[in-house]
């Protein structure tokens, strides 16, 4: 192969070329990296036309369309303009589908598989179910309070706490906690009971299996804000079942720490589960909806 390339090169030039220069020239011309984009060790060819589409479409509004994939995980998607055109073509009669889409983009996306029985519900209904799912299936959460500690008084202070909204087969949507006054977070709550609780989907399998970073909007998270209060006597038995069924090791925690139960009276629900901003969910809709099972 090198001899052939060298002969071609010698025909175009009147001066002699060293074998080393010839081999170097052939190596550059035949390099497989030309015309390819490398992304996490995965590469595929990209045409100039697609490059122009991506450059013109890579803005905040077009990002969801660039990442959308109508087939399955790891399939290549298309630039925003091509994707929209494809959607329009699907709504037309078969005879009108004359243009074939053949150029893959340099972006690929992950798409959550649909759950049986949820194909007909609206995006808002699905968002509410996702929020309830995250509250029920998370065994811990990130609770933020206003600090009362001397050196950081008044500064937001976050802490990871174990929680449960009920036994596995009985979701209430209300986060319960088993805490001690020796914890700085509880000390903060005794002075200011308002707090926010973030529950990430990163604890589950979806984000890990699909290699999605926890901060990626496709890796959902819900934030609940409200008042943290002590569980009243009439709810004490349920709180025990909720916490100890999900965290059996709690039964053996040292009694000298004087553990007690708290819960959050939810006032606001915020969900991030896709590009394009945070969904606001009413408390009424949140409590009357059953969580997704996966």
UniProtKB/TrEMBL annotation:
GO CC annotations on file: endoplasmic reticulum; extracellular space; Golgi apparatus
Entry keywords, A to Z: Glycoprotein, Membrane, Secreted, Signal, Transmembrane, Transmembrane helix
Intracellular or extracellular location(s): Secreted
InterPro entries: CREG, CREG_beta-barrel, Split_barrel_FMN-bd
Superkingdom, natural source: Eukaryota
Transmembrane segments: 17-39
UniProt KW Transmembrane helix keyword: yes
PANTHER family, sorted: CREG1 PROTEIN, PROTEIN CREG2
Family statement drawn from the similarity comment of this UniProt entry: Belongs to the CREG family.
Identification of the protein by name: Cellular repressor of E1A stimulateds 2
